[in-house]
């Protein structure tokens, strides 16, 4: 299927690649002729005006692709907590995590709805045919979710598990952000300043990538988890560091701690030995030669 790019003027463009007389869609060309496709697309981008957010989107697409295709051995920190909060609707709507959750869920629901609506399982076509169509319109995440939801055969069955498809799409998108940020913390800063329409395009790009099987294991574990995460911080990415005071201690973070008066360390009383040592450092001492010549004679002024 050819990739469609939605522009700001509500005009869509379908891109096809011709290689030695054979027309290929973008996905097929990326697999069969990646070098030729890369060179052609770079030349094409040089003919159009790109905004800073366009360049940021290109950077993020590459970083996400590398992260999704890599091996994984650990679930990113706080991913389960964020997904749990999104499912319950308790996350702040203005956060980028909430936006990515909605875009991911909508992307998957629309893809599966389109596939089921155009391919009916009435005995003439198998579930494998549906899987192939899902792969074209929604990528591997759509196929995985379809089998995870027991392969709904029609739109009526799909309507009963529509919320689960939405949750899986949101979990997939948030997991992609979490692994990309864990690989490169700069991804979070790029993602936060990306405008909403480019965030939506980035999420759509994620469904076109072929992630590693380790990543799908992470998504399934988080999606099927019933346990409530025990964490107070509900954000993806590294936790902000607390500022340090002059003594090198962590600064107070709660209102109760800030309202408490500062406790000064009590001074120890000076001993006689400490007093004598302080006087020796302050009072001037006569030279050893003067003490040997006349130790008992008081000092007199020199007269010329």
Automatic annotation (TrEMBL):
<protein>
    <submittedName>
        <fullName>Pectin degradation protein</fullName>
    </submittedName>
</protein>
<feature type="region of interest" description="Disordered">
    <location>
        <begin position="230"/>
        <end position="304"/>
    </location>
</feature>
């Amino acid at each position: 299927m050819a990739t469609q790019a939605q522009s700001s003027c509500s005009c869509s463009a379908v891109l096809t690649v011709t290689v030695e007389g054979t027309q290929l869609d973008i996905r097929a060309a990326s697999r069969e002729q990646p070098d030729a496709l890369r060179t052609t697309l770079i030349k094409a981008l040089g003919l159009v005006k790109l905004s800073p957010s366009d360049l940021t989107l290109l950077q993020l697409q590459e970083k996400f692709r590398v992260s999704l295709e890599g091996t994984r051995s650990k679930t990113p920190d706080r991913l389960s907590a964020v997904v749990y909060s999104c499912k319950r609707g308790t996350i702040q709507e203005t956060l980028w995590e909430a936006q990515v959750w909605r875009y991911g869920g909508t992307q998957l629901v629309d893809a599966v709805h389109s596939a089921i609506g155009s391919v009916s399982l009435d005995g003439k076509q198998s579930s494998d045919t549906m899987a192939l169509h899902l792969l074209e319109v929604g990528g591997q995440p759509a196929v995985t979710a379809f089998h995870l939801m027991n392969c709904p055969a029609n739109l009526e069955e799909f309507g009963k598990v529509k919320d689960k498809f939405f949750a899986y799409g949101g979990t997939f998108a948030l997991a992609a952000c979490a692994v990309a940020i864990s690989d490169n913390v700069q991804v979070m800063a790029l993602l936060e300043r990306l405008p909403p329409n480019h965030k939506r395009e980035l999420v759509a790009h994620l469904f076109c990538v072929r992630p590693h099987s380790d990543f799908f294991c992470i998504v399934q574990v988080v999606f099927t988890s019933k346990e409530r995460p025990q964490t107070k911080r509900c954000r993806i990415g590294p936790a902000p560091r607390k500022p340090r005071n002059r003594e090198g201690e962590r600064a107070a973070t709660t209102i109760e701690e800030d309202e408490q008066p500062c406790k000064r360390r009590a001074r120890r009383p000076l001993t006689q030995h400490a007093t004598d040592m302080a006087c020796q450092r302050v009072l001037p001492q006569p030279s050893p030669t003067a003490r040997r010549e006349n130790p008992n004679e008081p000092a007199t002024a020199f007269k010329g």
